[in-house]
Automatic annotation (TrEMBL):
Source species: Maricaulis maris (strain MCS10)
Cellular component terms per the entry's GO annotation: cytosol
GO terms of molecular function: ATP binding
Subcellular location: Cytoplasm
Annotated coiled-coil segments of the chain: none
Keywords associated with the record: ATP-binding, Cytoplasm, Nucleotide-binding
Keyword Glycoprotein: no
Family, per entry: Belongs to the PhoH family.
Protein name as catalogued: PhoH-like protein
């Protein structure tokens, strides 16, 4: 099997695979639905496949084409080993080939981090690519816990800081009131730095190590703050991340996203289905997504429970909670 990659002026990536007579015949016998089955697995990337004789033409986003090549090459090898078409093109076989493609050639080896960032799902790869891109100024990752949204946002921010694309990395999150918590002036205005930032600190330590984290903070290149401390500030030449953004109301969300100055970007991550607001009105994250999705100022990535990578048990629990919420009270 040989490959001929090219890139069009419109940035459409193309590749052609020369298949063996036997494997091309197997694909034709299985029908067009076999190839069509691959395309939805690549969302949010786009790609097309077309078989002419023994040549399979692929076109679309570069990452999608690279993953399709991996899937088809793996299928061709399995065919040579005598595997049946039903086994070769089964959903779990396709999923395994995509994971292999992500692990082999689509990891992000980025300066500023101790280890390469290895996406575990196609959505993670697309999200990370958008985080590292020059535009748009607003990127939103929405979906359940355990899908890697916060980890990737922090990794991208640290890399862009190291590369000199931004001078400051600002990480903020709203305070979530616990049952029985005494409300103080600081918690009411969301200006208190407390134990709820431990998860962010743990992630940063894993990504760059405790010494580098301390150095960045002492140089004031990295700030971790409650959302309330963003009020009245303008962040110039900064990469701003707001985590757990579903726990801000519309007014606070508006305040946060309008802090951007020149050469700045903002990333918001959160789960619109898991809101913990204390009598402050509806969540601002869902409202913001409705406002900006599809516009030229933002990209929105919707993660699902099927893309949870933390642990299979977490995915099962999230699916059960989602099902229970959908059924509502009897």
């Amino acid at each position: 099997m040989t490959t001929r990659p090219t890139t069009d002026p419109d940035q459409t990536f193309r590749a052609s695979l020369d298949l063996s007579n036997a494997f091309a015949g197997q694909i034709r016998s299985a029908g067009a639905e076999v190839l069509a089955r691959l395309v939805p697995e690549l969302a949010p990337y786009h790609a097309t496949l077309h078989l002419t004789g023994n040549r399979l033409d692929l076109a679309g986003d570069e990452a999608a084409v690279q993953m399709l090549q991996e899937v088809v090459q793996t299928a061709a090898e399995a065919s040579q080993d005598g595997a049946s078409p039903d086994h070769i093109w089964a959903a779990d076989a396709i999923a395994a080939s995509l994971r292999q493609a992500l692990e082999r050639g689509l990891a992000f080896r980025v300066p500023g981090l101790r280890n390469a960032v290895r996406p575990k799902t196609v959505m993670q790869h697309a999200f990370m690519s958008a985080l590292l891109a020059k535009s748009p100024p607003v990127v939103i990752g929405a979906g359940p816990t355990g899908t890697g949204k916060t980890h990737l946002a922090l990794a991208a921010g640290l890399n862009l800081l190291e590369d000199g694309k931004f001078r400051h990395l600002v990480i903020a999150r709203p305070h979530v009131f616990e049952r029985g918590e005494v409300v103080t002036a600081q918690t009411r205005t969301d200006t208190a730095y407390d134990g709820q930032f431990a998860a962010i600190e743990d992630e940063l330590t894993d990504l760059v190590g405790p010494e580098e984290l301390k150095r960045l903070q002492e140089a004031r290149r990295l700030e971790i703050m409650p959302v309330g401390r963003m009020r009245g500030r303008t962040f110039q030449n900064a990469y701003v991340i707001v985590d757990e953004a579903q726990n801000m109301n519309i007014q606070r969300t508006r305040m946060a996203v309008t802090r951007l100055g020149q050469n700045s970007r903002i990333v918001l991550t959160g789960d619109p289905s898991h809101v913990e607001l204390k009598d402050e009105g509806p969540s601002g994250l869902a409202h913001l997504i409705d406002l900006v999705e599809g516009s030229d100022i933002a990209r929105v990535f919707h993660f699902s429970a099927a893309q949870i990578v933390r642990d299979p048990v977490v995915a099962t629990l999230e699916a059960l909670y989602a099902q229970d919420n959908a059924s509502g009270p009897a």
